[in-house]
Specification:
Length: 156
């Protein structure tokens, strides 16, 4: 897997956003949807807009509690999080595994429940989470919010 590069803007020492970046809400950001949030930016486009998921808002339920059809599956205990204010009934499954010795981070984003079960069967070391909804920005909106210091971009 290729390492993600840290993009720095040419006019400052600040990181610029790209898919894979973490966005940290600035303490002055008071919007209840994003206050104290950490967002994994999954798609970034200066002209198309951007999408991400809030990764630090657990809802205290599991996938088995949310979807009774999965209550007896390998996915029953997968924790659920609020992924953002857009399409809150949309479930986004994410699987990842960090191999520190090999220096490799594997990430599967937006997988279906069959793929998630297969990943767990093949390698139980993978972590799974479910996100309800996502965060979205229209063309130029995220860049403007970063410029206004609503978000701090963290390199990965």
């Amino acid at each position: 897997m290729d390492r993600m590069r840290m993009n720095r803007s040419s006019h400052s020492n600040e990181l610029t956003a790209h898919a894979g970046s973490l966005l940290l809400a600035h303490p002055s950001l008071l919007d209840p949807n994003f206050r104290r949030s950490v967002i994994l930016l999954t798609a970034y486009g200066e002209s198309e807009g951007s999408i991400g998921v809030v990764v630090n808002r657990p809802i205290g339920k599991t996938l088995g509690e949310y979807d009774p059809e999965l209550s007896t599956s390998l996915l029953a205990d997968v924790p659920l999080f609020i992924g953002g204010p857009v399409v809150r009934d949309q479930l986004i499954l994410v699987a990842w595994k960090l191999s520190a010795e090999a220096g490799v981070f594997k990430l599967y984003f937006g997988i279906d429940h069959l793929k998630a079960q297969q990943i767990l069967q093949d390698d139980p070391e993978f972590q799974l989470r479910g996100y309800l909804g996502h965060a979205g920005w229209s063309e130029g909106q995220l860049d403007a919010e970063i410029e206004q210091k609503s978000w701090v971009v963290s390199g990965c």
